[in-house]
# Entry
Amino acid sequence: MNDHQQHPAITEVQLIAEQDAEADARKTRWVFIGVFGNILGTLIASIYEPTPPALRLLEKSPEYAAMYTDCYKAKSRSIQVRYSLIGIGLFFALAFAWSALG
# Structure
């Protein structure tokens, strides 16, 4: 018996939380933070934990709310770090292109 069959509710909550975090992510913002903040921006992205909207947790059990919040924060942080690193890469690519032209 696999993990999903043993704990279908947990897996479902994780999936919902991750999908919501993906939809709520401000990816362009984190790219700009990576471009202008470089390593500091990525550090901020790895520390900052956005909280899910309270309306999504209304009338949910405390266990559901805790699992959803933990998964939401983890996925959000992962997205933030990924896009801030893309911003750093973009910064270095632009700097390289600028130096190659000059």
In short: Helices lie at 3-6, 8-24, 27-47, 62-101. The chain has four helices and no strands.
